[in-house]
Amino acid sequence: MELKIKDLTGATIEVTDLNAAIDECKRCKDSPYKMESGHTVGENYAYILEQLLPIQQQNRRSRWLEGTEMRYNQGKRFTKMDIAYEIGRHEPYHPASLYWDSLRREELVAFFNDMFGTYIK
């Protein structure tokens, strides 16, 4: 998958590995070094990150199970079973997929939020 986004200066950036680009933006978003445009490198990475995170979230949502998507669209809360099935489907060796009934709700919610880019409390 190749997508094109813009940076603060308006230059087009081609992204070939979304996860690697997000990781790099997270690592560099606090950089104080100035660019020729007058913005800091960190501001530029933070701006790019704002564009990449919704794309990552949409990509993840496009792979949801039908039942999970239906519950989300209806505004219903996810159950432990929903969370465990989704995580287990995408990451079969993840602790949430193997031990979903023994993890605390906070742990499952944290795994789910990390995986799907949501902000469930």
Description:
- The protein has helices at 18-28, 41-61, 66-73, 80-90, 95-98, 105-116; strands spanning 3-6, 12-15.
- The longest helix has 21 residues, at 41-61.
- Strands 1-2 form a two-stranded antiparallel sheet.
- The protein has two domains: 3-61, no CATH class; 66-116, no CATH class.
- The chain is built from six helices and two strands; from the N terminus they run ββαααααα.
- Helix 4 (80-90) crosses helix 6.
- The two termini are 32 Å apart.
Element order, helices and strands? EEHHHHHH
Strand order of the largest sheet: 1-2
**Given the helix and strand composition, which structural class is it?**
mainly alpha
Residue share in helix? 55-70%
Could you say which overall geometry the principal axes of the C-alpha atoms support? elongated
Terminal CA distance reads 32 Å
Q: What is the number of E strands? A: 2
Mean pLDDT: 82
Radius of gyration, taken over Cα atoms and rounded to an integer in Å: 17 Å
